[in-house]
């Protein structure tokens, strides 16, 4: 499994990304993070991946190739667990989240890909 996590800071706030990640994975609320339009985001993912089989409300699998992913949400975050998913598919997910101004935090590295790191 490869994990992708997305959240958005409120203006003028920047916290320790690893600590934010750990709190969000435990489904804790983090002061300083924006509330996300979770339903809108999941609908956007569903429309971009409309050719994939929607296994359940939060899971998709590629019926024409390899890979599957599951979306786990909190009011402040979107976590996407990727299973055998190709890099270009993960990039597409990152691009969708960029539309909502939610940069990627990659806990495997660990690094957040936003303007504070550039």
Topology:
Elements: E1 2-7, H1 17-25, H2 38-48, E2 53-56, E3 59-61, E4 68-74, E5 77-83, H3 87-99, E6 104-106, E7 111-112
Antiparallel strand pairs: 1-5, 1-6, 2-3, 3-4, 4-5, 6-7
Tell me what the structure shows.
By secondary structure, this protein is an alpha+beta fold. Helices cover 28% and strands 27% of the residues. A seven-stranded antiparallel β-sheet has the order 2-3-4-5-1-6-7, with helices on both faces. The two termini are 27 Å apart.
β-strand amount? 25-35%
**Number of DSSP strand runs:** 7
User: What is the CA-atom radius of gyration, in angstroms?
Assistant: 14 Å
Q: Sum up the overall morphology in one term.
A: globular
Number of helices: 3
Biggest sheet, open or closed, and with what strands and sense? 7 strands, antiparallel
Ranges where pLDDT stays below 50 over 5 or more residues in a row are: none
Q: Mean of the pLDDT scores?
A: 96
Strand order of the largest sheet: 2-3-4-5-1-6-7
What distance lies between the first and last C-alpha atoms, to the nearest angstrom? Answer: 27 Å
**Share of helix, binned:** 25-40%
Structural class: alpha+beta
Order of helices and strands: EHHEEEEHEE
